[in-house]
Amino acid sequence: MAGFRSLARQVRDPRGDLALRRYSLRKCLERFAPYGHRATWDHLCARHGIDPEDRAPDPVRLMRALDELEEARAVWLAYEAGFAERRRREKHAGLRRPGAFDDWHRRTWGGHGVARCTDPEVHPTEPLAEVLRRLIAALGSSPGSACPVCADTGIEWRQERGEEPWAGPVCTGCGIAVPQPALTDRTLARARLPRHRRPAAAAAA
Ligand SMILES: [Zn+2]
């Protein structure tokens, strides 16, 4: 199976067939897609003016989309490397992290679905690298009561059935699934309440 970097080379190959170059970009999303495959593709198409169904899009646009994806991947891989190193030191010192923090990292290792968007058409509009920087900053500081990406306080608990059942807090502002370690217990408890029983965000903060 081709890795991200060899797929990226195919996207940039000026002699490559356009449909293949597009296909290679989509394959890159199987290796790294912060919002999940479909939502990340939707995001890149919107930002770089690519028609999602166009089988032979402008190669300049394809390469710009790849640039954005690569920048985000570099941000994430640097974070993971730092995280692994810190965990090694903490284990050595006998420190334990809350289980939710490790669970979240295990699930998102490699950067797939770091900021999963349950609705592929609802995702932040900022560049991917910027969104990841905000998430990383939130994971490195105390838990909060708002979305670390868009600062919206409308956090709702969602459940997905199907092939990969999933449940967790989702930001109703930008659409990302917020990592649970980034939210206070109180915010998580509030998100789990049915809408009509939820106190106003300011009261819960
Ligand atoms: Zn948000």
Description:
Helix content is 50%, strand content 6%. It is mainly α. It has one domain (4-204). Strands 1-2 form a two-stranded antiparallel sheet. α1 (4-12) runs antiparallel to α2 and α4 (59-92) runs parallel beside α6 (128-139). It binds zinc ion. Zinc ion binds next to loops. The site of zinc ion (ZN) has 8 residues, from loops.
Which descriptors would you attach to this protein?
205 residues; two-stranded antiparallel sheet; mainly alpha
Give the topology, please:
Elements: H1 4-12, H2 18-31, H3 37-48, H4 59-92, H5 99-108, H6 128-139, E1 155-160, E2 166-171, H7 185-192, H8 201-204
Antiparallel strand pairs: 1-2
This protein binds zinc ion.
Number of strands: 2
Number of domains: 1
Which kinds of small molecule does this entry bind, naming each only once? zinc ion
Q: What is the number of helical segments per DSSP (H or I, 4+ residues)?
A: 8
What would the principal axes of the Cα set say about the shape? globular
- Summarize the main sheet: 2 strands, antiparallel
User: How are the strands of the biggest sheet laid out side by side?
Assistant: 1-2
Radius of gyration: 18 Å
H/E series: HHHHHHEEHH
Q: Estimate what percentage of residues fall within beta strands.
A: 5-15%
Helix content: 40-55%
For the record, give the distance between the C-alpha atoms at the N and C termini, rounded to a whole number. Answer: 47 Å
Q: On the 0-100 scale, what is the average pLDDT?
A: 91
Q: Which segments are poorly predicted (pLDDT under 50) over 5 or more consecutive residues?
A: none
Content-based structural category: mainly alpha
